[in-house]
Structures are given as C-alpha cells and as structure tokens.
Design brief:
Length: 65
C-alpha cells in the first residue's frame, strides 16, 4: 500500500486543500490516514479509484456535479 502526501494528492486531483477537506467531510472523497501527530496521507489506490470514478467531459458538453 502506497501512501500519498497532500501535495501529491493536490497535484493529481487538481483540487485545493480546502476542497479536498470539504469533499472528505461530505463523504465524496477518500478519507485521509493519520500517519503521525502532524502528518496525514491518502492511500494511492483509493485516490486513483476516485479519479477513475469521476465523469469525463466531452468537448462542448456541460457536467453538473
């Protein structure tokens, strides 16, 4: 199991820290894991599964989330 840092998750998803936190609170994003007193991370496979579950956008179409 590979653990990703917040910076990597931000880079992969294109989301801000606040948006990731809000999505976690809403239950629509994988939950972070506590790695130490001041360190958190996400399981890589959970992040990749979440990304794969996101809808794709065809050119000219609108997606409402």
């Amino acid at each position: 199991m590979k653990i990703l840092s917040s910076n990597i998750v931000i880079e992969l998803t294109g989301l801000s820290r606040v948006t990731i936190w809000r999505y976690e609170q809403a239950g629509i994003f994988p939950q972070r894991r506590q790695l130490g007193t001041r360190r958190v991370g996400w399981v890589e496979s959970e992040i990749m599964d979440w990304l794969e579950s996101r809808p794709t956008v065809d050119e000219g179409s609108e997606v409402v989330v």
